[in-house]
What we know:
By secondary structure, the chain is an alpha/beta fold. Helices cover 35% and strands 23% of the residues. It is built from twelve helices and 15 strands. The chain has helices spanning 12-16, 34-43, 53-70, 86-93, 108-120, 124-134, 142-145, 148-162, 181-189, 252-267, 310-320, 350-361; strands at residues 23-25, 48-50, 74-75, 99-105, 172-173, 192-202, 208-218, 230-237, 241-248, 288-289, 295-304, 325-331, 339-345, 348-349, 371-375. The strands form three sheets. Strands 4, 5, 6, 7, 8, 9 and 10 form a seven-stranded mixed β-sheet that branches. A hairpin with a 7-residue loop joins strand 12 (325-331) and strand 13 (339-345). Helix 3 packs parallel to helix 8 (148-162), helix 5 (108-120) packs across helix 6 (124-134) and helix 11 (310-320) runs antiparallel to helix 12. The longest helix has 18 residues, at 53-70.
Amino acid sequence: DISGVVWVDDPVDIALRSDVDVVVEVMGGDGDPALSLLRAALKAHKPVITANKALLAQHGFSLAQLSEDTHTPLLFEAAVAGGVPVIKALREGLAANRIDALYGILNGTCNYILSTMEKTGQSFSDVLVEAQKLGYAEAYPILDIGGGDSGHKLVLLSALAFGTVPNFQGLSINGIEHVQADDIMAARDFDYRIKLIAQAQRLADGRLLQMVAPTLIPKSSPLAHIDGALNGIEIIAQSAGASFMAGRGAGAGPTASAVVADLIDIACGRSMPYIFGRPTTELEPCSPANFEDWSGGFYLRLVVCDKPGVLADIAPILRDHAISIDSMVQRGQSPNQPVKIIILTHDTTGKAINGAIAAIAKLDAVLESPFVMPILTL
C-alpha cells in the first residue's frame, strides 16, 4: 500500500517540490530520466546524491559545472565500489599526493565468475548461468562481463586521481567472456590468478592510459586475494605509497551505506565544493592511450593443429615483433586433436603483441583467434 506516499509521474517534479531538501537518484542509466532529474535538482539548488556511475561517466563534467555554477553539492560515493569509501579516499584522504597509478577489481559479477571458475574448473558459460540464478549477474549481463561497468567506474576514479575531464570514449575495454578454464589453470601453474583489472596510469609522454581487461596478477598481490563478489582497489601515490581498500562493491547494504554517508556529509555541511576534487576549469582534457601503449608481459593462448613445424612458424613472427618468450607450455589433447600453446612473454608493448597475433592468426595451422591478456606485476 503506497496510498500514504507522495507519488509523481515525472521524476523531475521531485526536484521542483518545496518539501524536498535533497534528491537521491539510484535509477541508473546514462541519460534520461536520471539526467534531467539531476539537472533540475541542481538548478533548484537541491543537493544531489547519486549512485549512477554510467550517467557520471558520460555527463559528469557538465554536471560538475552545473554543481559549481549553482553552488550545490553533488555527491556520488555509492557510484564506485559500493561500501568501499574510495571516492573520499581519493578526493580527501590522498589530496596531498600526486597519484601515479590505480588498479581495481570493480565488478563483483566478473570477480565471482572468475573466482568460481578457478575453484570448480567449470566453464565461463556454466558459471554465468549460476551467477544469474544467484542474482550476481543480470539477465542481460553484457555491461558487466564485457567490462563496461568497470569502465564507467574507472573513468570517475581517473578524473579524481589525475585531474582529468571524464572521458569514457578514451577507454580500452575487454571483458571476460573469452576466458577459459584452461587459462585459469595455466595462470595458476605460473603462480598467477586472473582478474578483471581496471587500471589507470599517467604515461611518460603525459597521456592517460585507462584500460579494463582480464589480467594475470601475481598470487602475492593483495588484489589476487579478492574473491567472490568483493571489490578491491590499490592506489599508488607519490608520498603515501600504496594504499589498498577492499569490501562489498554492490548490493543493498553497501549501496545504502555509501548513500547515507553522503547524506550525513550534506547534513553536517561538509560536502566538497568540487565533485572531482578541483574546479572544472582546472580539469585537463584527457589525451588517451590504449592497449597498444601498455607495456609489460603478456599471456598468449594459441590453438593449433597437432603437427610438426607449427612452433617453427610461430617463433619467427614473435622474433620479428621483438617479442621474447619467458615461458611456454603445450597442452596436448587426444591424438590428431587441436593443441593449446600457452606463452608468457617478457616485457613488450600491446602494439607489438597486436602485430604478432595478427600475423599468427593468418597461419594455416592456427585454428582459433589468439587470446591475449596482460600480465601485471604488483
